[in-house]
């Protein structure tokens, strides 16, 4: 077990300005918190956070990361609380410890690669401070190093699979090559025991016969370089068994063909010397065409730089050589954090501790290499997503702002359509509740439920939007059909014709439609007038003077007053001047009215509050004081306009039309103004006798369940 003073020395070796007190406090706090707990190995539990801290010192991470490592299991496994840690170590440390705890709580269950990818993204999104992820990776590394103490082989296999699927790719992703290799090799035997055994056997045999080749290659390379005065370090290491196995499995190459049983590495001072070394190697051994890769001019997404070449070496065997500078070597092995230490003298205090964080983020941001195994997108992208769980632990990946309804549709369209509410982390939640990262969501359903058009206002996923719209369109179609049917029945009656399916079917045929509903839909949606349908069915009525079509803009000429009619029951008119009832405000008997004398045209009658009067404010000479003659006895028909906001439900239009008819109103024009998923707004022109008549119709409409509001329209 690492001793307290040893840990301090390790950190001090790369950070002379270390806050020793702080680190000591964390050491003691964690030791006391874990107390007598032990691990599967029988060791005191505290040895684990200590080892994790040790791993992170090897990566030369800052004091806060080391403190977080020491404390990383205290919230989850001991009586220590977030508040305590916040008080003793500050808000930043508390947040990081909490972040590690949250990552630990996630259990990776699915074996599909899609899920693995989601989990990796989730980890990145959760670790908004990359140091949280580094502590988690070091935690996993130590657990893998001590995995053999766990007796249950299934548990070992599960943890190892998780390591291969989630943690090793994440380590690679952030450029921690060494960490990735170790994680993979520790996990390999537990996940693929047979493959591991046969590979190891084969490798033992091959190495027995190739070790002399390795020495020869190293010797030859060294002499080439020294003859040409190039200072270089040459190493030849055995390749990791897992990476060999991956190549055999994914690229289908046999073990004999593996140029890379050994990884030869040439390390020089700078970039220029890398290319010089490459030139020298190629003059001695022929290069295998097509296998030269220059990751110096084109670095990998994780920041990896190196030149890879494959040559035909001694005994005509292929060998792979990597050429890189010392700096590139440190980045490749230890990651960006260590690289920053290398580049910057640690004594230069200025922000050194955090610069490497920016580097790592930049690397994640400015990269795109389609060959990479991992996702090519930047970390910020995952912060536009939320990751939620089904009660069974399945991960659902949604865009930020997604609601309970989005989640339901993401699970299945049927679940979305019958969703009546949800439970988020066990507590009841409304349909439009916005989900947060890590929420566990349970959808409550009812067979009686139907998608509401209004859901479209708050859902954010394309899937939910499309499904709701599709459903709404079907609903709307039903609405038009019902309305069209009503309109046609009405006009048949007015025309004194019998309404029956036979008649409608003749229109279906002539219009080249499929069924009667198509005719109703066309009429209901206003695509075709009821009048036009009647004329198709009964060509004989074509030239006959008729009543107006309900859904076209024609006012019933027989009953409405005529333009220029000066027989209106209005007092105060100048004889001989034509009178017009203005179309802006539709004055009715009972309204207070005003006349405007328009030269050469006649008198326009407006309601006293009509906005059109504003322009005449400075011309009192054109105003005429008018009033209705005994409006209560009026038998003339006037047109009034009303504005209705209606619930967008099946039957709502038909309902209001029948209410109007019951009150002896007649609709002369319908205009659809606005349609929202919830409501629609229509403008109706009504033929009424007077204000009283109109008021009673409005009152009846307001009483309807389908109606949100009704207002008389003055424009
Ligand atoms: Mn741990």
Main sheet summary:
5 strands, mixed
Low-confidence segments: 344-357, 364-382, 545-566
Q: In CATH, what is the class of the largest domain?
A: Mainly Alpha
Present as ligands are:
manganese (II) ion
Mean pLDDT: 79
Give the distance, in angstroms, between the N- and C-terminal Cα atoms.
87 Å
Task: Provide the helix percentage.
Answer: 40-55%
Count of runs of 4 or more consecutive helical residues: 26
Give a count of the beta strands, DSSP E runs of length 2 or more. 19
Strand order of the largest sheet: 1-2-5-4-3
Broad shape: elongated
Protein model, in words:
The chain has 715 residues and is α+β, with helices and mostly antiparallel strands. It folds into 5 domains: 4-104 and 131-188, Hypothetical protein af1432 (Orthogonal Bundle), CATH 1.10.3210.10; 194-342, Beta Polymerase, domain 2; 353-471, Ubiquitin-like (UB roll) (Roll); 500-631, no CATH class; 638-712, Alpha-Beta Plaits, CATH 3.30.70. 46% of the residues lie in helices and 16% in strands. The protein contains 26 helices and 19 strands. A 5-stranded mixed beta sheet has the order 1-2-5-4-3. The longest helix is centred in the first third of the chain and has 35 residues, at 193-227. The radius of gyration is 41 Å and the shape is elongated. The relative contact order is 0.05.
């Amino acid at each position: 077990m690492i001793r307290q003073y040893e840990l301090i020395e390790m950190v001090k070796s790369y950070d002379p300005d270390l806050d020793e007190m702080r680190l000591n406090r964390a050491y003691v706090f964690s030791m006391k918190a874990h107390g007598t707990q032990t691990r599967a190995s029988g060791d005191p539990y505290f040895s684990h956070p200590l080892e994790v801290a040790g791993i992170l010192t090897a990566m030369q991470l800052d004091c806060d990361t080391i403190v977080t490592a020491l404390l990383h299991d205290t919230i989850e496994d001991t009586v220590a609380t977030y508040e305590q840690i916040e008080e003793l170590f500050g808000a930043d440390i508390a947040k990081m410890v909490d972040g590690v705890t949250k990552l630990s709580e996630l259990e990776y269950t699915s074996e599909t690669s899609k899920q693995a990818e989601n989990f990796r993204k989730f980890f990145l999104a959760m670790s908004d401070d990359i140091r949280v992820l580094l502590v988690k990776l070091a935690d996993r590394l130590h657990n893998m190093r001590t995995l053999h103490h766990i007796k249950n082989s299934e548990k070992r296999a599960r943890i190892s699979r998780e390591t291969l699927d989630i943690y090793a790719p994440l380590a690679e992703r952030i450029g921690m090559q060494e960490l990735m290799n170790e994680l993979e090799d520790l996990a390999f035997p537990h996940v693929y025991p047979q493959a591991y055994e046969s590979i190891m056997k084969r490798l033992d045999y091959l190495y027995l016969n190739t070790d002399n080749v390795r020495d020869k290659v190293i010797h030859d390379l060294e002499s080439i370089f020294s003859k040409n005065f190039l200072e270089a370090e040459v190493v030849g290491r055995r390749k990791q068994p897992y990476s060999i196995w991956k190549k055999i499995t994914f690229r289908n190459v046999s073990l004999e063909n593996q140029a890379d049983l050994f990884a030869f590495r040439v390390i020089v001072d700078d970039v220029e010397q890398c290319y010089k070394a490459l030139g020298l190697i190629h003059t001695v051994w022929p290069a295998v065409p097509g296998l030269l890769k220059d990751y110096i001019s084109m670095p990998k997404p994780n920041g990896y730089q190196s030149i890879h070449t494959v040559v035909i070496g001694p005994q005509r065997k292929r060998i792979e050589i990597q050429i890189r500078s010392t700096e590139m070597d440190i980045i490749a092995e230890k990651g960006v954090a260590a690289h920053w230490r290398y580049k910057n003298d640690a004594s230069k205090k200025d922000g050194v501790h955090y610069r490497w964080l920016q580097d790592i983020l930049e690397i994640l941001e400015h990269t795109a290499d389609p060959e990479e195994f991992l996702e090519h997108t930047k970390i910020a992208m995952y912060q536009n997503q939320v990751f939620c769980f089904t009660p069974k632990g399945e991960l659902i990946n949604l865009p930020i702002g997604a609601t309970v309804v989005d989640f339901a549709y993401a699970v299945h369209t049927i679940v979305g359509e019958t969703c009546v509410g949800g439970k988020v982390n066990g507590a009841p939640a409304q349909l439009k509740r916005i989900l947060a990262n890590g929420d566990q969501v349970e959808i409550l359903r009812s067979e009686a439920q139907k998608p509401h058009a209004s859901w479209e206002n708050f859902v954010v996923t394309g899937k939910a939007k499309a499904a709701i719209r599709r459903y709404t369109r079907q609903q709307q179609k039903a609405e038009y059909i019902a309305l069209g049917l009503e309109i046609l029945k009405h006009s048949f009656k007015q025309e004194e014709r019998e309404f029956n399916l036979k008649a409608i079917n003749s229109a279906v045929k002539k219009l080249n439609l499929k069924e009667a509903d198509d005719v109703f839909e066309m009429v209901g949606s206003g695509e075709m007038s009821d009048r036009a349908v009647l004329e198709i069915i009964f060509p004989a009525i074509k030239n006959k003077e008729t009543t107006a079509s309900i859904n076209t803009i024609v006012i019933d000429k027989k009953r409405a007053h005529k333009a220029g009619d000066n027989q209106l029951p209005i007092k105060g008119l100048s004889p001989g001047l034509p009178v017009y009832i203005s179309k802006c405000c539709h004055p009715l008997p009972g309204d207070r009215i005003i006349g405007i004398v328009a030269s050469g045209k006649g008198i326009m009658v407006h309601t006293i509050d009509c906005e059109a009067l504003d322009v005449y404010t400075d011309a009192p000479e054109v105003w005429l004081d008018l009033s209705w003659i005994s409006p209560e006895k009026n038998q003339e028909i006037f047109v009034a306009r009303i504005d209705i906001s209606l619930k967008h439900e099946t039957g709502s239009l038909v309902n209001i039309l029948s209410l109007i008819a019951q009150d002896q109103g007649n609709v002369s024009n319908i205009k659809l103004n606005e349609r929202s998923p919830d409501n629609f707004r229509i403008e109706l022109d009504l033929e009424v006798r007077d204000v009283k008549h109109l008021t009673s119709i409005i009152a009846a409409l307001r009483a309807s369940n389908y109606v949100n509001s009704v207002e008389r329209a003055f424009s």
